[in-house]
């Protein structure tokens, strides 16, 4: 019997974001990615969402490291939180580690964290794990697929990938290596990126975006051009700056992360912008409109970003007007559509011409679509298949694709967050569950529970009614109040009568409660809540949060 391998999914299966899974062999645990998720609209006041780290904390002594497949926040953004409690080395390409480093540094954990760079094609032992790093093309440079050569055969994790035959940096997804592993050893299990598994066809080459940008620069000659894209999308930044330079424009960056990433990528030789073409955003006013190009953050309409500030006329350096062309070189991530629309509207109101992915092909996805997925499957011919990285419907679509490509139905498993998968001589099966709920972060720490969120939702939708009353328990009398205070139920200055009526109803209810008995404070609170709640519902058909404050004199 060969030693079994277990995989625990802590995030990313059933949602886009907080990707995190754990490989287990000979009692050691090796993480693959530790990402965050950006909150959905109804998660009020939440900054970000993390995987539930309970199980990892309980098994802290067995954790020997984390592989970072690439530098996107949904893959490395959770590290700075987990590393507060656990200490382990992080493996990834130099650029991935460079991106991950920012947040780890901000959290003050850099000194105690070992960052270990690995190169394309490298194969190394991490504890009992024999791991190989295979290049893949994606919307951030130097991403990896990861092959685990285990006692149970090869487990191949695609990472976030696409097939781009003309990538901007020439670094292709190494299908050949995947194929040769498949030939020599066979692929026991494939874990594949499902993001675009429900999209027909083939993703466009990143280079085709460069051509579109070039044409736009031509069309908008004489105007100031501002282009927003993801700060980590170095290949996009490269193509924007290439177009700008070829039209004799100077390039300025705006937004903290854009500045940082451009500096990092230039230092690493991943981004070529001639020194003579770069200007500081503070100097932008010294140049005529037609001779500059500003590369900005905020392509997703993020509230604090440079582009959103421009749309709100709050940007320190740029005032948008009729002489500006603003290009959003991106596609809104599901959930961000409203914010993006608002930003576009604001820019148009200021007189700018706005170009976005709905008008021109100014964006290409970084994730493989169906034909690419089929190509990979035909090369890899996995014995078993588990879709990862996607919402539930993406996972199901991906599983169907695997079956079309010849993986038997009983060997395509749809797993969800929290599932533990055991690979042994007999086969592969879900054998357990660990906690994998959302960890909500508001501010610095993750102490926001479901209860708090439910309260916030009620407060946001219905408001709050506070009823304050002071009583003497021994004599069974009301000393002051009841006073009814509200925010968000009715507008108090215009509804005095209603509030007084409510106070009267509560007063009556308390008097009934005192009759013949000596209730305690808890019982009185319930009386107040019930009386006020019923009154509010009957009179206004609303359900605000009722907060009874009963005090003893
Ligand atoms: Zn990614
Ligand atoms: Zn991702």
What does this structure look like?
- This protein has 553 residues and is an alpha/beta fold.
- The chain is globular.
- Bound molecules: zinc ion (2 copies).
- The site of one zinc ion (ZN) has 4 residues, from loops.
Quick gist of this model?
The protein has 553 residues and is an alpha/beta fold. 31% of the residues lie in helices and 26% in strands.
What would you call the quaternary organization? single chain
Structural shape: globular
Mean pLDDT, nearest integer?
93
How would you write the strand order of the largest sheet? 7-6-5-3-2-1-19-20
Distance between the termini: 74 Å
Radius of gyration: 28 Å
Relative strand content: 25-35%
Secondary-structure content class: alpha/beta
Query: Can you summarize the main beta sheet?
Result: 8 strands, mixed
Heteromolecules bound: zinc ion
Helix proportion range: 25-40%
For the secondary structure, the number of strands is: 25
- What count of helical segments does DSSP give? 15
Uncertain residue ranges: none
What's the arrangement of secondary structure elements?
Layout: E1 5-11, E2 20-25, E3 28-34, E4 48-50, H1 54-58, E5 63-67, H2 73-76, H3 79-85, E6 90-92, H4 94-106, E7 115-117, E8 123-126, E9 129-136, E10 143-150, E11 153-157, H5 175-184, E12 187-193, H6 206-219, E13 224-228, H7 234-246, E14 250-254, H8 256-267, E15 292-296, H9 306-311, E16 324-328, H10 337-349, E17 353-355, H11 370-380, E18 384-388, H12 392-404, E19 419-424, E20 427-433, E21 439-442, E22 445-448, H13 450-462, E23 464-472, E24 477-487, H14 496-514, H15 521-540, E25 545-552
Parallel strand pairs: 3-5, 5-6, 6-7, 11-12, 12-18, 13-15, 13-16, 14-15, 16-17, 23-25
Antiparallel strand pairs: 1-2, 1-19, 2-3, 4-21, 8-9, 9-10, 10-11, 19-20, 21-22, 23-24
Helix pairs in contact: 3-4, 6-7, 14-15
This protein binds zinc ion (2 copies).
One zinc ion is lined by residues 70, 72, 138, 160.
């Amino acid at each position: 019997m060969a030693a079994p391998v277990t995989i625990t999914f802590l995030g990313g299966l059933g949602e886009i974001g907080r990707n995190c899974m754990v490989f287990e062999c000979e009692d050691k645990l090796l993480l693959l990615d530790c990402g965050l998720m950006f909150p959905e609209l109804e998660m009020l006041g939440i900054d970000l969402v993390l995987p539930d780290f309970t199980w990892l904390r309980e098994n802290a002594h067995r954790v020997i490291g984390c592989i970072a497949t690439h530098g996107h926040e949904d893959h490395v953004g959770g590290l700075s939180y987990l590393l507060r409690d656990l200490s382990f080395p992080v493996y990834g390409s130099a650029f991935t580690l460079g991106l991950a480093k920012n947040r780890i540094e901000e959290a003050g954990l850099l000194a105690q964290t070992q960052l270990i760079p690995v190169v394309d094609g490298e194969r190394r032992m991490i504890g009992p794990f024999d791991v190989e790093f295979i290049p893949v093309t994606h919307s951030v440079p130097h991403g990896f697929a990861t092959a685990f050569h285990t006692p149970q055969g090869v487990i191949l994790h695609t990472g976030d990938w696409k097939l781009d035959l003309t990538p901007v940096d020439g670094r292709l997804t190494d299908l050949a290596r995947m194929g040769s592993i498949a030939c020599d050893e066979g692929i026991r299990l494939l874990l594949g990126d499902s993001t675009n598994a429900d999209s027909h066809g083939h993703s466009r080459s990143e280079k085709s975006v460069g051509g579109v940008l070039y044409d736009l620069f031509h069309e908008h000659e004489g105007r100031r051009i501002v282009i927003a894209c993801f700060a980590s999308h170095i290949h996009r930044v490269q193509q924007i700056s290439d177009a700008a330079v070829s039209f004799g424009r100077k390039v300025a960056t705006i937004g903290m992360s854009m500045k940082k990433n451009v500096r990092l990528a230039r230092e690493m030789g991943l981004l070529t912008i001639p020194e003579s073409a770069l200007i500081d955003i503070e100097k932008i006013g010294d140049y005529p409109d037609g001779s500059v190009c500003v590369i900005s953050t905020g392509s997703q309409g993020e509230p604090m970003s440079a582009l959103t500030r421009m749309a709100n006329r709050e940007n320190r350096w740029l005032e948008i007007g009729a002489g500006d062309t603003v290009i959003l070189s991106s596609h809104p991530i599901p959930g961000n559509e409203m914010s993006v629309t608002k930003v576009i509207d604001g820019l148009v109101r200021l007189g700018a011409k706005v170009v976005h992915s709905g008008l021109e092909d100014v964006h290409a996805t970084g994730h493989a679509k169906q034909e690419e997925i089929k190509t990979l499957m035909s090369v890899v011919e996995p014995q078993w298949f588990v879709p990862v990285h996607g919402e539930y419907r993406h996972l199901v679509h991906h599983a169907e694709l695997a079956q079309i490509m010849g993986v038997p139905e009983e060997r395509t498993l749809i797993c969800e967050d929290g599932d533990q998968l055991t690979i042994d001589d007999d086969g592969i099966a879900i054998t357990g569950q660990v906690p994998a709920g959302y960890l909500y972060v508001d501010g610095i720490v993750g102490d926001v529970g479901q209860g708090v969120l439910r309260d916030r939702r009620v407060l946001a939708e219905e408001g709050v009614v506070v009823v304050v009353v002071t009583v003497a328990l021994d004599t069974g009398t009301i000393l002051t109040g009841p006073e009814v205070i509200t925010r968000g139920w009715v507008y108090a200055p215009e509804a005095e009568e209603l509030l007084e009526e409510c106070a009267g109803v509560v007063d009556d209810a308390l008097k009934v409660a005192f009759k013949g008995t000596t209730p305690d404070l808890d019982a009185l609170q319930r009386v107040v809540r019930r009386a006020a709640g019923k009154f509010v519902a009957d009179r206004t058909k609303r359900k605000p949060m009722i907060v009874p404050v009963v005090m003893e004199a």
